[in-house]
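Changelog-adjacent note: as of this version, every example in the card shows the full chain rather than a window. The one below runs 407 residues end to end.
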Amino acid sequence: MSARKTNIKKAVLAYSGGLDTSIILKWLEDEYGCEVVTFTADIGQGEEVEPARAKAQAMGIKEIYIEDLREEFVRDYVFPMFRANTIYEGEYLLGTSIARPLIAKRLVEIANATGADAISHGATGKGNDQVRFELGAYALKPDVHVIAPWREWDLNSREKLMDYAKTHNIPVDFNKGKKSPYSMDANLLHISYEGGILEDPWAEAEEDMWRWSVSPEQAPDKATYLELTYEQGDIVALNGKAMSPAEVLTELNRVGGANGVGRLDIVENRYVGMKSRGCYETPGGTIMMKAHRAIESLTLDREVAHLKDELMPRYASMIYNGYWWSPERTMMQTMIDESQKTVNGVVRVKLYKGSVSAVGRKSATDSLFDESIATFEDDAGAYNQQDAEGFIKLNALRLKIQASRRK
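Full-length structure tokens:
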């Protein structure tokens, strides 16, 4: 065992209770000779997290953290991201990316609380998550040691993992029925699918792959309407009923999924350099994006709105690439949040067979829409149309000069 490994006395493991992280737990004990603390987070993945406690106890773990982080996840991560209308590469709503900063934060906090020397995760050496976890950890605890088993061990096949589990008496759960061929990751914002036939970008995803939504073809023939109430850029009520952030997203997922909303099939550029094909279901987030842009269209100054749109791709890349805890993201968030002070009001959306349309928006306190100016009828002198001539000529001056030079 190397000196570097012998210096590790205790490590905090992001533990799901599944086969991979159970193997990592045992591997850490054997390879590093260290005590392991497990951390399991409920961020709305839709699976029970308590069984992870029994599995960790059965493997002799003494310090076990099981936490419900759903409200914190939506309030402090999802909502701030949606204030910026954040989309990566024009389509992806960053459902996996935005969960990683919270998990990294809690890993570091638990390491501090338990006196651990290291943190460990089960992300592979080919994906984005290793970058997100580790950049977050180093930003919050510069001297932390990170153990990434997939970059160290030789258990690089399912067969080797199963052999290791058998050798070390690690229980393997065999679920009844057909096992999904996809690698899936879920939280309250989305569920993702990779692998299987999706590794061929020409192959259409199978209908039975989708878990959260009906197909648009099978969605109801009657439209569903929702009213979303906003305060400073965040949804605080649905159809007039006050809800917490996690309750809002849970209900939007339910209603959106029932109407076939939120399916996405893309090829994206990973930060580590490769292209990856993935499918995503983000019904609640898709509704939130449409509704937030609608309320901003009514309440934001034109130049503020345009500046936000110019900066958004940079902000999206920060989140996708793992820089949530960076000073530049914090600085940009301050600017975004300042813009949201006037984003108050109600948006009415229409859901129909996979589509989301904003069909109404109002704000009693912050609307910049002035009907007396915008009307096509007599505007009672609120806007002098003759002023437009000078405006046009001044803006045309440089174009006229350029045209004259060409002649």
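Structural remarks: The chain has 13 helices and 14 strands.
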